[in-house]
User: What shape does this take?
Amino acid sequence: MKNITRRNLGITLFAALGMVLVTSHAQAQTVEQFYTGKTIELIVGYPPGGSNDVYGRAVARHIGKHIPGHPQVTFRNMPGAGSILAANHIFNVAPKDGTVLGLLAATNTLDEKLGASGVKFETAKFTWIGRIAAGTNVTAMWNTSSVKTAADAFKRETTLGATGTGSTVFIYPNVLNRVLGTKFKMVMGYGGSNEAMLAMERGEVDGHSTSWEAYKSAHPDWIKDKKINIVVQYGLTRHPDLPDVPTCVELASTHEEKQILGAVVNATEIGKAILSTPSVPPDRAEALRRAFVDMTHDLEFISELEAQRVELTPMTGAKLQELVQEVGNMSPDLIQKIKAVYGND
Assistant: This one.
């Protein structure tokens, strides 16, 4: 009996020593050692095509060479509910070790504050890696539409191709309808901005709201040949490319209208941002942020974005984390005002 007890005690001590050694090794492991031989998955919460897909694929091709250990980076589209599906996956399911990155809707912070259906994440708890570019959205009308300007949109009903109610392609014009009284009618069910833009070209709908970069990237000829008219842009200031197009905030006539619209479109500052899961080990989070900054100075990355005709206006992960927190700190009174106009038709 004594021999059995001693043997069991020896096994227990040996197992405990093994766990100590494993834990010690994990703690001593450098970022480079961790990422060597690893694969990082970059998830974009949108279908193929459009500016989010363009940005995500560019990051997937270039960020790995700037991360210690040079991991491979794979790419995955996970569309659904205006990227809420992908956000829930990254927040709740993906491993919390720095091997998953995401590019999601800039409006997710607002969705969370407003209690949008399906939200199972806290945006401030994501590990924000960096912003590639601000995300100015626009409403564009095909040249045959009777709506040529923002003023026309208050007088005549016009159809816009849209995807899901959680996407900015729906949210921004819908909020404009409810706050200011424009007469945009959403035609739902398109699989993404590429499909909606082609529907506009075919005459199925009069126009489409999406990012300015999506138009510049997918259809620069439409801009050059004046096949589309940009009637309003969604941002706090006018985009340099669109100095004569009013922002939605400029169309407001009261302080309350300006306050509501300004809060809704503040997501443009979050823009096209890369994030990771909550609880990424601090040394890996810092390495990912440094890699992101290095990537934005990489001439090959810059050249790819230029070839795709999309912008590069980067923001560091630390500053982005602060901005997300600011958007999430809106007053309860303002949140209630936004709730009243933000819902589905």
